[in-house]
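Figure 2 data, in text form.
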Amino acid sequence: IAQSLEHPDYHYLHAVLHRREGDFSNSKYWYRQVGENHPVIKQMKAIHQVWDPFSFVEACQEMKHPAPLLQLQADEMALLLKHCALG
């Protein structure tokens, strides 16, 4: 469903879903489709200055320090859901 709709919000959801299922290269592809100007990416960078979606996907792939990654994921998901709910 997410792939059939051409909108950055759906691309973002698609990227997150692929990251969660462990399809990391596909997740990065969909983050590229989102673009750097998505409001959630801007908010994540404002909250976590060193955050970028591609490094986050790589960190998830390596899973060396899962606890901080869980918080980043929770922050990202909260912002994305809020953004989508408010339109």
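Caption note: The two ends are 18 Å apart (CA to CA).
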